[in-house]
Design a protein that fits this description.
By secondary structure, the chain is an alpha+beta fold. The chain has eight helices and five strands, in the order αβαβααβααβαβα. Its main location: cytoplasm.
Length: 199
Amino acid sequence: MSNAFIEMLKNRRTIYNLGDSLSVSHDHISQLVKDAVKHSPSSFNSQTSRVVILFGEQHKKLWDLTKETLRAIVPAGSFAATEQKIDSFAAGAGSILFFEDLNVVKGLQEKFAAYADNFPIWSEQSSGMAQLAVWSALAEENIGASLQHYNPLIDNFVAKEWHIPEHWLLRAQMVFGSINAPAGDKDFMDDEQRFRIYQ
């Protein structure tokens, strides 16, 4: 069975060995990200996802500041491995910061009180779908990416450095760039453990 969308999902992999050579322009990537997020689903069409895209020196600044933040809490004897990992992110071409707008979530909780407890959950689901959409769109352009979660450790300096509104909650950081080495093999658990089908 062949399905273009399934093939696209298969093509989306975590790429750690990234470079900063891109075959497309910053404008093209920015529009790709905008379109992917804009057309991702959200509960009540709430459109809670917010995105900041960092290229070049702004991207490197994110990971330099992340490294210094981690240096303050990671034991010195263990920091070399942490530094190597952060430097590998900085070697990429850019980063996409995914946020959720808590003001929208709060407004929905007030407007639809019966579902109040669910709106934060649905917000997280919307964010995940936006992240997958962007990641898959990048993979279709042969741009590698990996998804990182250094929040909430980096929330304060990110908010200050890039003038992020207080009601935007950082959920993930996606590093992207040229693919210097492909992803390794991926193992899957048995279908019988994951799926039940009744007919």
